[in-house]
Specification:
Elements (H helix, E strand, L loop, with lengths): L3 E9 L4 H14 L3 E8 L7 E9 L11 E6 L2 H7 L3 E10 L11 E5 L1 H9 L5 H13 L4 H11 L5 H12 L3
Parallel strand pairs: 1-4, 4-5, 5-6
Antiparallel strand pairs: 1-3, 2-3
Helix pairs in contact: 1-4, 1-5, 3-4, 3-6, 4-6
């Protein structure tokens, strides 16, 4: 890992991206790294724009905000359009397969069926955020996979642990 990696998770309200950001930051802490998580969402709780940002570092983090991210997750076309320019050259873009592949040749793009896998393979669109975390970690290996799984199981509602663990495993092995 570079000494500091900046990650933006974007989509719409109700997709669980704020929770995903909290889990990713906790997983990084469990892995012995420093992390900061911030969040923003539109005035509508569900359906409005939603964004979580996580900075993970092997060293001190001096500023808690992201200007240009290294990794961008977009689960909606609107969020991809809005945040694509904030992705650094040589960055990683992870988009749901319902999002059009943008015309940028200076980044690595992963077109992943996150929402479909959550709904059809796991049986609930409510775990799309956990499938997304698995995909991010499967692609980047930014956090130890067992530490991230512990953070997931620590934060999901009681009684949903098995479904969320399955969603995480799907995401890790989505390719």
């Amino acid at each position: 890992m570079d000494s500091q990696v900046e990650i933006r998770l974007s989509g719409s309200g109700g997709q669980g991206l704020i929770l995903a950001g909290i889990i990713l930051a906790e997983g990084a802490l469990n892995d012995g790294k420093n992390s900061i998580q911030t969040q923003s969402y539109g005035p509508e709780a569900r359906g409005g724009a939603s964004r979580a940002e996580v900075i993970i570092s092997d060293t001190d983090i001096n500023y808690p905000k992201i200007n240009k991210c290294d990794i961008l997750l977009s689960l909606t076309q609107k969020s991809c359009d809005k945040y694509l320019d904030s992705l650094k050259k040589d960055g990683i873009l992870i988009i749901d397969d319902t999002v059009e592949i943008p015309e940028r040749d200076d980044i690595k793009i992963y077109h992943v069926p996150i929402l479909e896998r959550a709904k059809n393979d796991i049986g609930s669109s409510m775990v799309s955020n956990i499938v997304a975390l698995g995909a991010i970690n499967g692609i980047t290996k930014i956090v130890d996979k067992e530490e991230l799984k512990k953070a997931i199981l620590n934060r999901v509602p009681p009684g949903t642990e098995e479904k969320n663990e399955k969603a995480y495993e799907y995401g890790l092995n989505i390719f």
